[in-house]
Amino acid sequence: MRKYATALFVAASLALTACSGEGEPKASDSPPPTKEEIVYYDCLKANGVKIRHTDYGAPRVNKDDPPSLEKLPAAQAACEDKAPPPPSPVPADPKILAASRAEARCLRANGVSWYPDPDPTTGNTAVGAVTSEQAAELRTKHMDAMTKCRAERDAGAADNVGLGR
């Protein structure tokens, strides 16, 4: 019983810390921009797009400048060969991936036949795998299934980290 109370206390403390903002990343926690990023954003700038720099020096498109944003599609096309490679996906914790797979199976078993499996690396639902119409249907016609499957997923995840019922 004491182990359970200690684990519960630790989990609650971590949750409160995460919500308090004390665990927020700082500019100094971010990596400096890569050479590829700098070359790409310099190219965008040369093609009329206004660029701003974050607190840690990374170049970004200035989204507060509408005339500049109008030039963005053409600039992106002109600079396509200089675009940095996309970041590598961050692999999901195996327990979270298993819980996401179980949730997908549960939803399909409960009438949501079109619900996709999660991405095998990240555990997320792939962008575009669910249409906006399907997402709306999930929130309306399949709310009972979603509530049931999410509760099962969350209970399984809690059991996996020693905080189960």
Describe this structure in words.
The chain is mostly helical. It contains six helices and two strands; from the N terminus they run H-H-E-E-H-H-H-H. It has a two-stranded antiparallel ribbon with strand order 1-2. Strand 1 and strand 2 (59-61) form a beta hairpin. It is elongated and about 55 Å long. The model is unreliable at 1-23 and 161-165 (pLDDT under 50).
Biggest β-sheet strands, sense, barrel: 2 strands, antiparallel
Radius of gyration: 22 Å
Order of helices and strands: HHEEHHHH
With helices defined by DSSP (H or I, 4 residues minimum), what is the helix count?
6
What is the oligomer described by this structure?
Answer: single chain
Strand order of the largest sheet: 1-2
In terms of structural class, how would the helical and strand content be classed?
mainly alpha
Q: Beta-strand percentage? A: under 5%
Number of strands: 2
Which spans of ≥5 residues are poorly predicted at pLDDT below 50? 1-23, 161-165
Shape: elongated
Ends distance: 12 Å
* Helix content estimate: 40-55%
Average pLDDT level: 79
